[in-house]
Amino acid sequence: MVREHVADLRAIVREERGRWSDSALLARLDPGVLQEFLDASVLVRFDRNAVLVRQDGTDTDIYLLLSSYVKVTAKFGDGRSALLAIRAGGDVVGELAASGGGRRIATVIACAKEPVYAAKIAATDFLWLASRHPASLVLLTNALGRKLTTATRRRVDNSGRPPLIRLARVLVELADDHGVALTDESVLIGVDLTQFELGSLIGMRESSVLRALRELKQQNLVDTSGRRPVVRNLEMLRAIAYPAEDTVK
């Protein structure tokens, strides 16, 4: 973690906020309220693979993500680990430990070529400010609900579906949420992802991911030769992910 000068915080927010999703928590906060949170924060930078939050840690700081991407991962009792989610600039991480107490339940790691800039705020300051602004507390609660709903929906929605459709769906979701257009048809997913991580997002074995990827590559729809996947034809991949019989319901 690298601390940056506080004056840079405002400049980074001005530069990055246009890239935040409209549904992201920071984008939905009243600008004046957001500034109060930022004023109580310290600007920090994390380069690729740096850890923001470590599973089982007892710290309770919260990170307002201003740029780039992080992975949320968890390790199970048998030593296996899984990718649970990807968060981007405009999102918040670490709020569960702050609001519920106890140890961290997941690890958060910077995962893109571009550094992660974040506003680090103490849990006490975060909760105090949220209590002063009831609308922000509602937005925070809704954001937590969406995170849980997305994870559950992904598992339920994919239950019983062929591996090819399950993989196509998560690639379309990643391209929609974190993609950068290369051409009219192709999209670069802006996050470093392994085949194992793709599988863990949808509860699929790596061997099944490999077979499904091979089929998508044969159709020239995806390229996973680099750190970051490329969807060569997003609309054709979307047609595979959501067949006609699924849309007529």
TrEMBL record:
<feature type="domain" description="HTH crp-type">
    <location>
        <begin position="161"/>
        <end position="235"/>
    </location>
</feature>
<dbReference type="InterPro" id="IPR012318">
    <property type="entry name" value="HTH_CRP"/>
</dbReference>
<dbReference type="Pfam" id="PF00027">
    <property type="entry name" value="cNMP_binding"/>
</dbReference>
<dbReference type="InterPro" id="IPR036390">
    <property type="entry name" value="WH_DNA-bd_sf"/>
</dbReference>
<keyword id="KW-0804">Transcription</keyword>
<dbReference type="InterPro" id="IPR050397">
    <property type="entry name" value="Env_Response_Regulators"/>
</dbReference>
<dbReference type="InterPro" id="IPR018490">
    <property type="entry name" value="cNMP-bd_dom_sf"/>
</dbReference>
<dbReference type="GO" id="GO:0003677">
    <property type="term" value="F:DNA binding"/>
</dbReference>
<dbReference type="GO" id="GO:0005829">
    <property type="term" value="C:cytosol"/>
</dbReference>
<dbReference type="InterPro" id="IPR000595">
    <property type="entry name" value="cNMP-bd_dom"/>
</dbReference>
<keyword id="KW-0238">DNA-binding</keyword>
<feature type="domain" description="Cyclic nucleotide-binding">
    <location>
        <begin position="25"/>
        <end position="110"/>
    </location>
</feature>
<dbReference type="InterPro" id="IPR036388">
    <property type="entry name" value="WH-like_DNA-bd_sf"/>
</dbReference>
<dbReference type="GO" id="GO:0003700">
    <property type="term" value="F:DNA-binding transcription factor activity"/>
</dbReference>
<dbReference type="InterPro" id="IPR014710">
    <property type="entry name" value="RmlC-like_jellyroll"/>
</dbReference>
<keyword id="KW-0805">Transcription regulation</keyword>
<dbReference type="Pfam" id="PF13545">
    <property type="entry name" value="HTH_Crp_2"/>
</dbReference>
<protein>
    <submittedName>
        <fullName>CRP-like cAMP-binding protein</fullName>
    </submittedName>
</protein>
